[in-house]
């Protein structure tokens, strides 16, 4: 009998151990799957935090692997949008990058209203998750015609009141027990967070009391509305915070203590964290599993096989990257019962940005050369991607507490909610108060990237939206005759780039075809062709009895969601008023300059007035790649001939003979046919009339040499649409369509005046608020330094240098410094 009991007990233990062992493997496998299918992050660095109408928004977007903060191997396309206060997307940029960063810009239009605008950035792959994971930042834009150039600001900074008498309404107080729960008989740290009705962090003080009205301890919150108490709850008792506001007591109940459970507490010493795991359950910590991860990468694991009530772990942080780390305790049933976040701030990861100017004293309109380099904690050179803005800090806030690439990647992108003034936590190294408050941030903000229940037992990761590597041209082919069903056909694409590219493939059994990915800027003329059999059987007219239908390439933007937004906290009303007044002065100076320039033009013009015919030819030549032709027909001069066929029109050109379905120049054979810059053939134009044509050029001899296969000359037909478009009405033979494909946006170049050479600058005052914008600072391979030159303006002021970036090893950094122009 005893043997049976022992055997049964052994079987139970074995099964329990097997279940826990399998669960451990499940957790590790799911985390590995998460890191293999890593999320992406984007951060956008702008040249300044606010703008006026007529300004340009200059930005650099950083696209990263969301776990390692290095270059992502997934997406290559970034979408950046500007959204108004009514959630309307008023401008959008589609950018391509093969590296970590790419630059862009927005022109602020004159008809935009004053208000808060949202700058949003994401990849197609990021749409698989909630839009909370997109980069979102508020930017204020003023229309100077709608404002008197003043800024009345309600201070959103943390109140520094030491009493509660200044409060006019009941604040919200939340309690966050360390590890998640209060457990009877176990000491627990409890973080306190206080906000007013406007969701602002505030300072308050009060007393913690039990159900018998006995005072347990005193508490006080200050910076960021945060505070902390330590409590050992007694089973069966409840507790509340007593706060007096205007001599009236308000009670806030604490969470009820569980009779038994598990505790998880962490003390962060900077270079080391001490983890304490405890339990007052009957089996203690037996078969529990403690797992630590940072952004999904495992940094610690411990399986407790013995029946013990507590254990300690000392974990050195010198090999752990900076950022939010998550420690979770799973009980013997595989349930996550306690969780604690801790911030790793490793001094070994400190990046030093060194900047030096070639002159110690600067004056107005002076050329300045700046040298930049990166060094690690051991003063060794670092490589990285960085961008730089230089702004007038009498008008532009230059706050070290504001959001930047380091605070976003290490804090706000991984925590629930938004951390206000996050730069504060990175201002001073080894600052006791900063570390204390940052630890309270960890206690009051949860890990936002995934929930354990979803990761372990939920559906697989949504991949409805694939990472984009470039632009695809896709569609399907249908039979031209009969029931016009989809058919498999030979398809061919021709990209009319500087060096034309052509590729053939067979559409599938459902007629679907897809070419790409391609990378090109702005727009590109494209020819798509299809044949029933192949492209060698064009002597059979039925071979072209196929229709081509393009898929829409419009990228629909996700719905706008503003629940979690990085606010641009506008705190310095004096600087903002300076900015508005300076912007107003710039607007007046620009208007005066344009007016004076117009007057000057009227004085100096002495050229012969061009005839209307010359102006028309100049306009048409600007639309060609070859300039002037040998001969030309301009249909604007032949309005009464528009009903004539293309054959009749070609016969009107000197040296061209067109009869039935043949065309030749000087009887030398069929010439090369070009339609709106793309190659065609005679069959493609036989259906055209003068209604379809804008002008026709003939190129002979040397004029034709820029085209291949031009021994018999070239006939260039420009349609009335000006370019191929899938919606145009130009008649072409079946089996071919033409259109302009929209490419990637190419950022404009930031205007940098050369005060030594530019004549117009002599008469134009220069009082820019953004003195210089460098979207990509390139470090030399030899010296590991970058040299950047710019000119100071006419404004004697203090100027702030803000450099943001990330090293090749995934360490984000932000540098702030200043210089004076006297």
From TrEMBL:
Tell me the superkingdom of the source. Bacteria
Which residue range or ranges hold the TonB-dependent receptor plug domain?
Answer: 629-714
In the bilayer, the protein is annotated as:
Multi-pass membrane protein
What SUPFAM superfamilies does this protein map onto?
A: Porins
What Pfam families does its record include?
Answer: Plug
Signal peptide interval: none
The record's InterPro entries line, in alphabetical order, gives: Plug_dom, Plug_dom_sf, TonB-dep_rcpt-like
One term under GO cellular component: cell outer membrane
Q: Give UniProt keywords alphabetically.
A: Cell outer membrane, Membrane, Transmembrane, Transmembrane beta strand, Transport
Subcellular localization(s) per the UniProt record: Cell outer membrane
Q: Which family is this protein grouped under? A: Belongs to the TonB-dependent receptor family.
Q: What is this protein called?
A: TonB-dependent receptor plug domain-containing protein
């Amino acid at each position: 009998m005893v043997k049976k009991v022992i055997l049964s007990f052994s079987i139970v233990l074995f099964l329990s151990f097997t279940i826990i062992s399998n669960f451990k493997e499940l957790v590790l496998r799911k985390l590995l799957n998460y890191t293999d299918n890593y999320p992406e992050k984007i951060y956008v660095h702008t040249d300044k935090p606010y703008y006026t109408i007529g300004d340009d928004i200059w930005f650099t977007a950083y696209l990263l692997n969301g776990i390692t903060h290095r270059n992502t191997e997934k997406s290559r396309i970034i979408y950046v949008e500007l959204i108004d206060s009514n959630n309307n997307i008023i401008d959008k940029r589609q950018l391509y990058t093969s590296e970590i960063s790419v630059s862009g810009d927005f022109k602020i239009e004159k008809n935009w209203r004053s208000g808060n605008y949202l700058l949003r950035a994401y990849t197609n792959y990021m749409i698989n998750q909630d839009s909370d994971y997109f980069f979102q930042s508020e930017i204020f834009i003023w229309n100077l015609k709608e404002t008197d150039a003043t800024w009345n600001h309600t201070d959103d900074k943390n109140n520094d009141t030491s009493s509660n008498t200044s409060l006019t309404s009941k604040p919200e107080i939340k309690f966050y027990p360390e590890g998640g729960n209060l457990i009877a008989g176990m000491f627990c740290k409890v973080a306190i967070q206080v906000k007013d009705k406007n969701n602002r962090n505030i300072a308050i003080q009060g007393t913690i009391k039990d159900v018998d009205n006995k005072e347990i301890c005193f508490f006080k919150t200050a910076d960021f509305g945060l505070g902390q108490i330590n409590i050992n709850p007694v089973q069966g008792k409840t507790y509340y915070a007593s706060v007096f506001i205007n001599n009236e007591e308000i009670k806030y109940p604490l969470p009820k203590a569980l009779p038994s459970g598990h505790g998880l507490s962490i003390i962060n010493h900077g270079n080391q964290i001490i983890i304490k795991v405890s339990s007052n359950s009957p089996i203690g910590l037996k078969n529990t599993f403690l797992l630590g991860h940072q952004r999904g990468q495992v940094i610690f694991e411990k399986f407790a096989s013995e029946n013990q009530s507590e254990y300690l772990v000392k974990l050195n942080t010198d090999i752990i990257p900076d950022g939010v780390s998550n420690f979770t305790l799973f009980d013997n049933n595989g349930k996550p019962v306690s969780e604690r976040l801790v911030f790793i701030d490793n001094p070994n990861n400190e990046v030093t940005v060194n900047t030096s100017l070639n002159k110690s004293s600067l004056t107005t309109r002076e050329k300045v050369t700046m040298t930049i380099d990166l060094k690690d904690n051991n003063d060794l050179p670092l490589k990285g991607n960085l961008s730089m803005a230089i702004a007038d800090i009498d008008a532009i806030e230059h706050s070290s507490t504001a959001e930047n690439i380091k605070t976003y990647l290490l804090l706000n992108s991984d925590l629930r909610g938004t951390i206000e003034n996050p730069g504060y936590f990175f201002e001073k190294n080894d600052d006791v108060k900063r570390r204390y408050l940052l630890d309270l941030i960890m206690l009051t903000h949860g890990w936002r990237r995934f929930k354990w229940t979803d990761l372990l037992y939920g559906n697989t990761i949504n991949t409805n939206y694939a990472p984009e590597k470039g632009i695809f041209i896709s569609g399907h082919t249908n039979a031209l005759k009969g029931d016009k069903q989809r058919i498999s056909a030979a398809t061919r694409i021709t990209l009319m780039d500087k060096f034309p590219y052509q590729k053939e493939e067979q559409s599938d059994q459902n007629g679907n075809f897809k070419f790409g990915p391609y990378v090109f800027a702005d727009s590109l003329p494209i020819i798509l062709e299809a044949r029933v059999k192949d492209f060698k059987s064009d002597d059979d007219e039925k071979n072209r009895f196929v229709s081509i239908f393009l898929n829409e390439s419009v990228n629909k933007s996700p719905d706008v969601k503003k629940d979690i937004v990085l606010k641009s906290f506008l705190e310095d009303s004096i600087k903002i008023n300076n900015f508005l007044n300076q912007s107003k002065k710039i607007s007046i100076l620009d208007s005066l300059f344009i007016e004076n320039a117009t007057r000057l033009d009227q004085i100096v013009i002495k050229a012969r007035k061009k005839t209307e015919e010359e102006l028309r030819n100049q306009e048409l030549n600007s639309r060609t790649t070859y300039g002037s032709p040998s001969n030309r027909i301009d249909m604007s001069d032949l309005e009464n001939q528009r009903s004539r066929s293309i054959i009749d029109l070609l016969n009107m050109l000197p040296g061209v003979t067109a009869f039935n379905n043949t065309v030749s120049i000087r009887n030398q054979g069929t010439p090369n046919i070009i339609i709106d810059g793309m190659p065609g053939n005679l069959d493609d134009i036989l259906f055209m009339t003068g209604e379809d044509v804008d002008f026709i050029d003939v190129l002979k001899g040397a004029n034709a040499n820029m085209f291949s296969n031009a021994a018999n000359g070239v006939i260039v037909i420009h349609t009335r649409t000006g370019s191929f478009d899938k919606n145009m009405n130009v008649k072409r033979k079946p089996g071919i369509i033409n259109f302009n494909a929209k490419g990637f946006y190419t950022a404009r170049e930031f205007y940098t005046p050369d005060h030594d050479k530019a004549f117009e600058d002599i008469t134009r005052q220069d009082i820019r608020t953004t003195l210089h914008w460098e979207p990509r600072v390139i470090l030399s391979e030899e010296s590991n330094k970058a040299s950047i030159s710019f000119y100071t303006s006419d404004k004697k002021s203090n100027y702030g240098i803000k450099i943001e970036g990330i090293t090749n090893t995934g360490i984000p950094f932000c540098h702030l410094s200043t210089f004076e122009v006297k």
